[in-house]
Amino acid sequence: MIKQTEVDGVPTLVAPMSGPLRAGLVFRVGVADEPLSRAGITHLLEHLALFRHGLADHEANAATGLITTQFFTQGAESEVITYLRSVCQSLGDLPLDRLETEKSILRTERAGRGDRLVDAMGLWRYGSRGHGIAGYPELGLPRLTAEDLGSWAATWFTRDNAVLWIASEGVPAGLSLPLPQGERRPLPPITSALPATPAYFASEDGQVMFDAVVRRSTAASLYGAVLERELFRALRQEDGNSYRAGASYHPRGDQFATLVAVADSLPEKQDAVLGGFVDVLAKLKVGRIEQSDVDSARDKALTALTDPDVDAMRLPGMAVNLLTGYPSQSTEQLRAELRAVSAQDVHAVAVEAMSTGLLLVPAGHAADWAGFVPAPTRSDTAVGGTVHPGLREDGTGIAVTAEGITMTTPSGPLTVLFAACSVMLTWPDGARRLIGHDAITVHVEPTLHTVPPQELALIDAGVDPEVVVPMPARDPEDIPAFVPRAPRPASSGTSRWSAMTVIYALIATASLVFGLVLLVKLIGQAASSVSEWRAVVVLWIAGAYCAVQFVKRYRRSG
Amino acid sequence: MSSRPAPGPPNFDRLAAFPELAALRDAVSARDWTSVELFFAGLPDAAAVSYVVGYASDLPGSEQCYDRAPDSSLSSLLRAARYVALAWEVRSGARAEYVSEDQFRGMHDWLRRAEPILIDLTAREPDNAPAWSVRLTTALGLQLGQHEARRRYDRLARHAPHHFQAQSRLLQQFCPKWGGTWDRAFGFARECAANAPAGSTSPTLIPEVHLEQYIDLDTARERADYLRRPEVRAEVLDAARRSVLHPDFGRGYGWVGAASTFALVLGITGSEEAAARCFDMLGDLANEHPWHYFEDAAAKYRKVRASVQGRPQS
């Protein structure tokens, strides 16, 4: 039995559970709420809020998700009380002296985690806003200030935007959550970078992954389980081309859920894994749902609901429901729904999943043959303006107008309109990277593209300063260098008089002649300064050097 | 032997070998879908359906019939097969280096129309071997890969383990011209031939793969040497004995193709007597494949036939 009460104005869900006291303080804020130019702010704040608590003997942790951030703990009553109070107090009084240190810890954490494929799917589906943010590194870190963190905490980490859950008989006496007043925040808007679905894109990763957005339902969660069984059977047991093949179901917070299915592949069998994957999706889409799969998925879910601690185990999910305004079902309702799901219901989800699907295929493969459209990797339009060709002569060029920037490429334009720019990273060496709402990226390297200063000024004037993130200086080795093509061997040339040879000859002649003229003049003068004599010496040294260079080159080219 | 009638020119018309197909042709051109369905309903097995689908998809303008037919497994299959035939018409039969970019694009457009129909069809009916067989052709044309082709064949073979048309298509895929290797091509041909029941058409893969290897050789001298190899001759002859020359060899659709391939390859590898028996079996009948590999198919047919029958070329 789950009871709802309140602690210091924070709605609180309580259900009994054996073992130590467990509690979670959940806020309705996550990565999907961050602008890309502040990406990482919630995670940074979460780290700072935990810092004062230090190393605890009991279990205490926190996690920043897409739409929620949760502080979790388990231990003795007093430990739980201390932990939660410390977190709330820290949120109101952040240890800002830790700011830079925690930033660098986050950078390390990110590097260790690597780019998760499932996050990349969000980037392709949603672009560089909302649920797409998780696909990017925490780009906002370099520019995040104490003020940013303070106002982020005041907006999102309030008692009206939080829910507490406690797995225990009741609320421990003395528990307090000193949080400021605020308001319940709405879910982030759903953005889109996919003009049409089902769509596909290719990645070097080598796996096949499918994600789909379907209406949230018990049938949809069973579809995930059925899909997993089908993939495992077809790709691993029958074809033997995959080791790992599975699927999972994730509510998105609103009326929809994301289904994610993935299969790995032996490197040489990627084509067959893709083909087998497409056929499994098709099998379910046309309605060949194995009743035995539905039954066993249902049984598994029902069995999980027989756990004596089932109510307590459901608390974190119900806390999220409460925060997002999604109605929670009682465990009995869930059982009844599970029993009522038919193969036809699962089929309806399969049809819906296919219509919204996004498929990741291994590099070098496509899925257009299977009815998936390519997800855009180029823009539909280019801004006007003059195209300045790149120095590498690789067919790329840059054009800038007051509206935006386009990099032309042989396979089409990449355009970011300033009004739809999520972030512009700038480096001290002059490089700029603009990421559009649709996740199209334009990167300008001054060493590779010569853009006139007045056009660079247009970029800086056009992009909202709020989305500009100044980056630390790069290692010179990371700055791409323009290496001109190797000069042709001079001997094969038609003339010994290459440009440099001519220049050396001219400088040598001019220096020697001027030096001589000056010398004659000085000798004829009664009084002469030291600097004038010096000039003669310098001219003659320069002339001699150029003469030597000229002779060297002239001989070599002979 | 003396009773053999004077040989005439080869007849490549499938209607000459299987006159009953004329009724199907007429039904298709009259867009008489009921008759088309009835015709297919009378076919004995998947191999026969595949052969007749091949015929029906080559009929010019037949898409007008299939596109308008009510939705069914058969109409889907014929529609997709027709799109595949149109794809190959755009491509032309030439080797890849002689096909223009426009042709490839046009071909892929048709194949991309065919494939989703077939994906759904095989999803609904995983035992629809003729549909899987067409999917081997789409895999070839769309260059979906060696292992994907093999996967498709394995799905088909669960239900039709000795489906010659599909085997022959996968053999093409396994040849180096389509991204395979000779090892894989020979391996597959031998695997199918070894597992085939007595008198089946599957051992025809043996002369086919030797023919592919022979054609691929660079010089006339290499080709001549290849045909003289005793192990080549022995392997082809052995395959013939288990197929066209076996008493159980039937006269189902596809027998003309098998006999044609054996007649040619037995003939050029020096098994004259066995080749002559194939030509006797054929009368004047001929299958386009493999003779279309030669510039003048009819002339090649007559030349080989004359050489094995010991008669001057007529």
UniProtKB/TrEMBL annotation, chain A:
Keywords: Membrane, Transmembrane, Transmembrane helix. The keyword Membrane applies. The chain crosses the membrane at residues 497-520, 532-551. This is Zn-dependent peptidase. The lineage of its organism: Bacteria, Bacillati, Actinomycetota, Actinomycetes, Pseudonocardiales.
From TrEMBL, chain B:
It comes from the Bacteria. This is DUF4034 domain-containing protein. It comes from Kutzneria viridogrisea.
